[in-house]
Write a structure and sequence with these properties.
Radius of gyration: 16 Å
Strand content: 25-35%
Distance between the termini: 57 Å
Helix content: 10-25%
Strand order of the largest sheet: 1-5-4-3-2
Structural class: alpha+beta
Number of helices: 2
Length: 131
């Protein structure tokens, strides 16, 4: 079993976080209002759980634990940080920001006119508000 590293995120919206995780190929995740136990020796609990069986060559589950400010903290086993470390969190954060922007724009009656993905992976959205 492995020790968990805790990485603070700026992600607050559970629905959008689940959509971002789905974009990265994680479907049917274990989500609970009451934290569930993650595999690992130090008995970490989290509201969102990616079971190790869904992770490629992972040693333990990955979890997202809600903090008192409403944000989620990622819990990743030290052994698994080689594949699911900062670069993976950065990809997840980008998908979260994209999904959050689309949700916010839709709620404010904006329509997506154009979407471009640059060679560096950045995404540019062109929107229009219908009056």
């Amino acid at each position: 079993m492995s020790h968990y590293t805790q990485l603070q995120t700026q992600m607050h919206d559970e629905e959008v976080l689940l959509e971002a995780l789905s974009d990265l190929g994680f479907h049917g995740l274990v989500c609970s209002e009451k934290p569930v136990l993650l595999s690992g020796w130090d008995k970490q609990f989290a509201e969102i759980k990616i079971p190790e069986s869904m992770l490629d060559s992972a040693f333990s589950d990955i979890g997202f634990k809600r903090q008192s400010d409403g944000s989620f903290k990622a819990l990743i086993a030290d052994y698994d940080r080689r594949k699911y470390g900062l670069s993976w969190i950065n990809k997840l954060t980008q998908r979260y920001a994209y999904r959050k922007a689309r949700k916010t724009l839709s709620n404010q009656d904006f329509t997506l006119v154009e979407e471009e993905v640059d060679q560096d992976g950045s995404i540019r959205l062109v929107v229009r508000r219908m009056a």
